[in-house]
Amino acid sequence: MNHGLFVALLATGILYGTPLVIAGLGELLAERSGVLNLGVEGMMLMGAVTAFWVARGVAGPSILVLPLAIVLAGVVAAATATIHAFLTITLRTNQIVSGLALTIFAGASGLSSYIATVAGLGGSPATHTLRAINVFGLKNVPVLGPLLFDENALVYVSWLMVVGVSLYINRTRPGLHLRAVGEDPHAADSMGISVTRVRYAHTIAGGAFAGIGGAFYTLAISPEWSDGITNGAGWIAIALVIFAFWRPTGVLAGAYLFGVVTSLGSNLEARGVQLPSELFTALPYLLTMIVLVVVSSGLGKRRLGAPAGLGIPYARDGG
Amino acid sequence: MTATLQPPVRRRAAQAVPVRLERRLDQPGRIHSALLPVGSLLLAMVLVGVLLGIAGHDPFAALSQVVSAAVTGQGSISATLTSATPLLFTGLAAAVAFRMRIWNIGGEGQLYIGAICAAGVGIATGASGLAVALPLMLIAAALGGALWAAIPALLRAFLNTNEILTSLMLNYVAGLLLGYLILDSTSYWRDMSGPTALVYPQGKSLASAAFWPGFTGGGLIIPLGLVFGVALAVLVFVMIRHTWFGYQLRVTADNAQAGRYAGMASRRNLVAVMMLSGALAALGGASQVGDFSHLLDPSGLQQPQYGYTGIVVAALARYNPLAVVLSALFLGAITNAGLNLQSATFPQSLTGVIEGIILFCVLGGEVLSRYRFVWGRR
Amino acid sequence: MNEPSLTESRPTAVALAARGVTKRFPGVLANDNVEFEVRAGEVHALLGENGSGKTTLCKVFTGLYRADAGHVEIAGRPVDLHSPADVHARGVFMVHQHFSLVERMTVAENVMLGWRRGSRFWFDRRAAEREVAELATLHGLPVDPATLIGELSMGERQRVEILKALCRGAKVLILDEPTTVLTPQEAEGLFESLRRLAEAGSAVVFISHKLHEVLSVCDRVSVLRRGVMTGTVDLREQRAVDTRELARMMVGREIELGRREREELVDPHADPVLELSELTVTGDHGNAVLDSVTLDVHAGEVLGVAGVAGNGQRELADAIAGLRPLAAGTVTVAGKPLRAGSPLAAIAGGVAFVPEDRFGVGLAPGMTVAENMVLKSFRSGRFSAGPFVRRRRVVVHTEEQLDGYELRGGPASVVGKLSGGNAQKVLLAREMSGEPKVLVIAAPTRGLDVAATETVRELIARAAEAGTAVVMISEDLDEVLDVSDRVAVMCGGRVTGVLPAAGADVEEIGLLMMGHTADPAGPAGTPAPADPAVASARAERTA
Description:
The structure holds three protein chains of three kinds. By secondary structure, chain A is mostly helical. In chain A, about 70% of the residues lie in helices and about 0% in strands. Chain A is built from 13 helices and two strands; from the N terminus they run αααααβαβααααααα. By secondary structure, chain B is mainly alpha-helical. Chain B contains 17 helices and four strands. In chain B, the strands form two sheets. Chain B has a two-stranded antiparallel ribbon. In chain B, strands 2-3 form a two-stranded antiparallel sheet. In chain B, strand 2 (about 215) and strand 3 form a beta hairpin. The longest helix of chain B is centred in the middle third of the chain and has 30 residues, at about 130-160. Chain B is globular. Chain C is of the alpha/beta class. Chain C has a six-stranded mixed beta sheet, sandwiched between helices. A six-stranded mixed beta sheet of chain C has the order 16-19-20-13-21-22, sandwiched between helices. A four-stranded antiparallel beta sheet of chain C has the order 2-1-4-5, with helices on one face. In chain C, helix 7 links the parallel strand 7 and strand 8. The interface between A and B is large, with 68 and 60 residues.
């Protein structure tokens, strides 16, 4: 593999990996509190459509419109996640089916697409997009320059998120409570920690993260709207959390691996490699399966890192 | 950023909430069980109406459009039956798996694989007539779907790999395979006969002798697939309720540990259920080819999302195979409205929204059958 | 009571009291106008059988339940309790039988959990560990703050629980059946700690149903029976208290439990029915959770297996029942070795198994009694017509098997709605219906009331009389001594000694439970960590 291809692959890997980083961190937060949310795909699409709607429709300088788009994307997706939180935490329904319901509700042929239809988002590109920021003018440093210093703002934010979530989980009291609630809600409850509140907070926060991840698609990857623009990224984000053994740094590494594989096709095609495009498009999905198999059959056999209370509704009386 | 993650602090307020759920001690009665989905549906309709209102449309106009497209309009019941047919299969597929707590989300891909197998066999044998082509198409589809579903099943049974994600990933792979066969290759399935076929890629048609005959009468067209589907629903119901195989599945679903303790082959049963589920969904794909499109049509198979809707069908039927027949008809009507109205009031994407809301309401209603709300603290 | 400084300084100040507490559940009056008070500086026993309302009263004390009538007083003042946090703020803490500890977090993290101290936002693990180490020394409860809970013995975990309470300023400590998970020696250590606490001015409520424990540690005893407080006895004034009298207050009649001598059924010269040779089971980390266990049991014999929970008893039961693959060794029933790791082979070989987790392992709780009754025998063909179920025959069979068990509910009842005692009867009826050669029964009477306990023990005796070789695993040493012919003691996955039950020395059994092998040459076993995930969590922490 020559030098240029290597850098190009890593650069596009970071581009395609960033939404996975952000959404994966969100799912990680929800799962560490014990809530499995399979609605990531739907929440990402809600974020994506909201961000696109703002970026296309709101006039003003990009420096104001883009943050607004990102924040609104987070808010809307968080609101979507609240449905899941209510159903699974308050009503204690099956988390798997509820998450699926969320993806059907909000997903590629659901609310995100309905909003796009009603708001007439098809056809024309966004007026504001995230552009790369040449940090300290270091863009032209070989290899590292284009990778580390020529990214858009949300990529830098995603790195801060990894550090932030990592610190939050391990070095703060809410993080301590989060881990306790995910591991053993009964013990946490008996020590006066509100399981309900912790689970709601992190499920909703997870939704916000997913929405911001989705916003990355419409603000940085593709300038035009198409239904189901995330193409299964939400599901890959869920798989990433397993792959990462529920650790933020693992999510980062895994997301970039998936980013590289996702962009492999376009990079190779640009260099004249002739293979069916469907094969390349299928690679991330196949890689997800392979990764899951490796993790589950080998290291993960003991559910390494999986919160012990994951997926189990909590009720004080055990019912 | 970390600050936003801190739970909202208002300790007293949360503790003072007087409503809580208490487990019901009595068994919900039959009427209660039957009324629940109906009540859930009514609530869902109200919520959809509110949503339409927010979007600036008249909910009642939309409702009358749906009713017209699904029930009262010219040929509308036949159209509803057409949409209900694949949902009956994917609904059964989801019901069988979910009832056993095996999360096969791969109905979508299994349906595609069924269509691919059935179309391939149908193209090859269609000229020999229905008597040859029909059984071969059914067998090929069922086999293909079962094998496709066996991938996540075996991974789950022997390597403990999460079947939700693997079965779902295979949907994307199956979808890409579908596209490759028709749009991006010169495969056996693709029609390469004329110049237009090269510009507008499409599937090769079956010989008309292999078209599945429907039952017509009284202005109604009942597809053969629908009849098969209903028969399968009965068979699956009997299998679960009245055979020892079904008994083992029910034990394992209720308490997998107890199943193992009693020496049941839980892995074998898991793989069997998943393969059965895959075969059922795939038969829906065969019916798409045999009953309706008579060729392999990627967008026609993918656009309506029959596989995912099947999950809603199954949940609405509370995973009861017989009830799946009714809920498939109901969701068939909605899918049909989405496909055929394509209006500003009722774009196709609204079907996903409605399905999602129905599922939320069914899940919420389920809770009320197990718990009841109690005001005041214990 | 208007002068709190005065009342608090008096040693007899009431620390916690129930005044006319009544609590109803559908169909049950769990607490009926209960009066109860604990004074600062005393260890006060709350004595009562299972189902007598002890737990309900404690849940009222800890804010989980709200009394229908009456109220709770803390430090002499009526209080309105909303949640455990509320109760903790008032200095009342409860140590439950199942510890409220997160296994995959460290001692320090567990102590700090939910404790508002220091920074509200940041959590400094090192500082927390230092602080907890100091507090542990201060309160005389030695634990290593950096250790994961899952790696601690039950006695150490209990210390962490008590430490948690003391750190938060506990004035009243309620301990629910605290000795069930301890060796006799560990229990002695606990009693000393409790006495020290009381002398330092704390009030301790000691919940138990074991008279001898109560007599050895408590100052006063209050007895609950079927939700009614039957009386309070001051042991300091009345040292020579009549245990039979206390027992009568507790159960309302003379207890008949106790060692029942059976006629000698065992023929020591016959070949044993169950032979275990060198049974070894490895855990997730390659460690031996069952370490070359060799035992044999004759027809008509009850072999009791004693030990602190988590020392290989569960693995032993599972290994005999074919639920765990063996790393080495064989299980032989009536001379025929069983295929290892196959539940089906064990069933076919005549092994019946009543697991400790009745609803979690032994039964399908969502299904009916009839459906559960054929869980192991459905393959026999008796109930089949081709692949189909002959429902009528299943029901008739169920009725036959349950005859004489006095089960509440019929074949159509859903098992999950049965009481623990009735569920245990269904399990026993099913397991004995196959006329087994071997019966393995774990925690046979856990959670059962007196009547059900008696029935179950009677059924075990009847099984032995019918010639079954019985292995009875129980953490209740009294039960083991009362019911068995011989006692095998386990520690760290090994059998540390086998001795006759009649006239066995409790002290000696206690030493065996701690790993002092009967054979002085043998190595002392060390308790294995209870949770296999612990080591991986540790790896995560150090990463």
